[in-house]
Protein 1
Amino acid sequence: MIALYIVTGGALVVSFLFDPTKTLMGLKKGWMKFYKTLPNYLFLLMLISLILLVSEDFIIENLGQENVFLGVLFSLGIGSVTMMPGFIAYPLSRILLERGVPYMVITAFVTSLMLVGVVTYPLEKAYMGRKATILRNIMSFLVAAGISLIAGILYGEIV
Amino acid sequence: MTKSTRNYLIFGAFLIFSLVSWIVEYDFGLAIWDNFLVFAIDMVLILPPAFILIGLFDVWAKNETIEKHFGKTNNPMRFIYSILLASTTVGGTFVAFPVANALYHKGAKYSSIFTYVTAASLFMIPMTIMEASILGLKFTSIRLLASIPFIVIGAILLEKYFEKTGYQLPTVND
């Protein structure tokens, strides 16, 4: 986070020294983009706050399936529709691991959480278009399934 | 009513709902607000510098440079550049989408921007460090290494399809 500010500050200073008008133009462009997407971000954060609240217990209950593949499917599904910051997702995964949930299921959960964004759909659509958004998310879902399969093999949880 | 006005109105309603929850001590409403604050503080800190950088990138980055590293030539190095750029992107997909859009309009190939967006959510350095410290280095290494081939193959497949159908990303600008 601090690095981001240092980089931004440095870039601004350098840019300004080279060409003040161009820098102002860049700032204006950045501001326009920010202004256009801000309501999207706010709406999204509201939605996520609500989903996160109702999902935490549900996740703990449903990821610890007897059947590993069923557990993976559940994780992929839950991971796709929810969104949470790392400092919640990782401790939650730690709890699940300690309760005997296989690594394969955890991988599916963590990966789909990061990759597939059902709630970020409106934001992604604004920048990537509808078709690219849908296809990218389907592709990411499959990628998440593939990664968890490899993790399952490497951890010796499936033969 | 435009989409942004609608979203602002919904957000206004949310603020009122939270305020009322606070007055009547409605626990469910307060819990949502607490969650919202956690995310919002992050966003407030990340978004302004991120959008300043995106704006500067827009005026300074030359189309030829982007094309050379992320674009038209079939240089496989573009996947490595995309992943490197992604791992240093702070703010995950929230920031990656606008950056990907900017890259596209500067002449980057589809496979580069899809690799970039996907990798941005999986490879962020601060998050990876946190993950390794909580879930173990083995877990993190497996997750990262296993994902590279899938990301690249997926990105290439999407590019094939989009080039065939002549798809274009929307223009987001003033």
Protein 2
Amino acid sequence: MNEATSFALRCCIFAGIALVATGLILSGSSYGEGVMWTGLLILILSPFAGVLVTYSHLIAEKDWKWAKVATILVAIILIFLAVSLLRN
Amino acid sequence: MDPMLILALVAIGIGASVLGALFGIGGGIVFVPVLTILFGLSASEAAAVSLVGIIATSTGAASYFIKSGVANVRLGLLLEITTSIGAMIGAVIAVYIADWALLIVFGCVLIYGAVSMILKKERVIEDPKELNDMCFSYTDGKDLRTKRYEVVNVNSGLAVCTGAGVLSSLTGVGGGTIKVPLMNLHMRVPIKVASATSSYMIGITAFSGAIVFFIHGSLLLDYAAAIAVGAFIGSTIGTRLSRMVDAGPMRRYFSILLLAISFVIFLKAGGVL
């Protein structure tokens, strides 16, 4: 589980930072802004991607106690997001 | 954007992130005042950029700490539940409470944590005799020994994390400054595990805020990008440094950092920052 979670976080952050840095270099061109927005989105999503990978591993390992904990956390994050988006 | 401005933001990202990754505090306490005072950003613009910096710091650090087994993912998931609930409560009650009063309470909590960490010895339950769901192990990068420990006072720890979530949501200061002393002093989690686990948790908390700013398009793109690149470089340095530091000095350094942060918070409460 640790290996998979770490790998997911690493992939997301490397991809996100690579795109963000490329976007900064290209900031004078028409592509720069789009590349930066894509990089930032990948970067921002990375912690949640890590939680989802951990969650799927806990289910695959039939570690039900901790899978329940992860289910509650994912539900709370989604509720928080929905409430935040609806309020604004 | 001016290349010199980009370089300055990258440098700030590196500095804040080294501290953030080393001690599991994210770095928001540095990002927000610097962006508002030096760069003239509004509070909400600085908060949005800071959240991106915190995510880059915590994700970079967490990927390393999780792989090396120092961060406790299960404990992080558990404590994050009540932290997130606290953050939701904080967002709802924010309009009813005066900022300065909260900041003073927060500053006092940090001073209490700092003094406790200086005065009280680390009381980790090593090699517990009876194994249960809250027994874990990690390998200390300093001496490469695998150490077992037991997490205690889980229910009260969860309750305090709710308070940490409320305070961080109301004041904009990351909950890591409360969660690390809480895990270490109250739940008997070794300091290195506590700060690594806090790094993992902070990213999850910051995600919820940052994605809302992103969807509304209220992120300052160039600022967020430059801070993110700096924060990623800083987190790489900070995680490597943490391997070389002993647990004892690390607690002392963390206490000094808490005192410095509480000083900044009191300045903010007094309207100086």
